[in-house]
Amino acid sequence: xxxxxxxxxxxxxxxxxxxxxxxxxxxxxxxxxxxxxxxxxxxxxxxxxxxxxxxxxxxxxxxxxxxxxxxxxxxxxxxxxxxxxxxxxxxxxxxxxxxxxxxxxxxxxxxxxxxxxx
Length: 118
What we know:
By secondary structure, this protein is mostly beta strands. The chain is 0% helix and 53% strand.
């Protein structure tokens, strides 16, 4: 079992930055692919970014060039650096983990709220 706890959300003005963190416990994340998803009010949850064991990354088109995902294996933590934030980035952000040989994300955090004011 992997437990995930997100932090770093908050209220920021458009154009500002936030850094989200996801602290994992229970297992080392070195064998897990990690990702961030988000869900805005009234919308379905959507993929934001992912990072593999080999640190290859993937991003949703809407955040490319603005967000950066990284992982710190020594601290068992994943980060999402969010720059040039827009009001449409407002959502609850969730951290997720999947074992490297499994395609679906089985472990989820409780989420952290990000609100971007215009």
